[in-house]
Design goal:
Blueprint (H helix, E strand, L loop, with lengths): L3 H4 L1 H20 L2 H5 L2 E9 L2 E5 L19 E13 L2 E11 L5 E14 L2 E9 L3
Parallel strand pairs: 1-6
Antiparallel strand pairs: 1-2, 3-4, 4-5, 5-6
Length: 131
């Protein structure tokens, strides 16, 4: 970390923990914990579609259809800070989706914007090449 990123070490640590919690909750299929990792409204741009995410947007059935039909879990491959401030961190990320047998479904580059709002760090926006 250099410059602004070095000066914002606490923000980066908190935003990184948010992404850790995001992935852990998603892999556990724990929608309550997953939604706790957002700052609403949140925006997702993927598959050429912009979604405005509010509480209750995610449903348990999302884990058994579409792009997640064969999915078992995901893992971060890269999380690099692009920009940081005391209440917002931009990450250049890559995550991989896996089947239960450990085979790879795909790896996807993404940008995540994690913000601190009213003392809560959460995912505010993400743009992904994932379906």
């Amino acid at each position: 970390m250099t410059g602004a990123n070095e000066a914002n070490g606490a923000a980066i640590a908190a935003a990184t923990k948010c992404l850790d919690d995001f992935m852990a909750a998603f892999n556990a299929r724990d929608l309550k914990a997953f939604e706790a990792t957002f700052n609403f409204p949140s925006v997702r741009l993927a598959s050429n579609t912009l979604a405005i995410i509010e509480p209750g947007y995610h449903k348990q059935e999302m884990f058994s259809r579409g792009a997640l039909k064969e999915w078992d879990h995901s893992a971060w491959e890269r999380r690099r800070v692009i920009h940081s401030g005391p209440d917002k961190v931009h990450f250049d990320t890559r995550f991989t989706r896996y089947r239960a047998d450990g085979s790879i479904i795909g790896g996807f580059d993404s940008i995540y914007v994690v913000t601190c709002e009213n003392g809560h760090w959460g995912v505010k926006a993400r743009s992904s090449y994932a379906p």
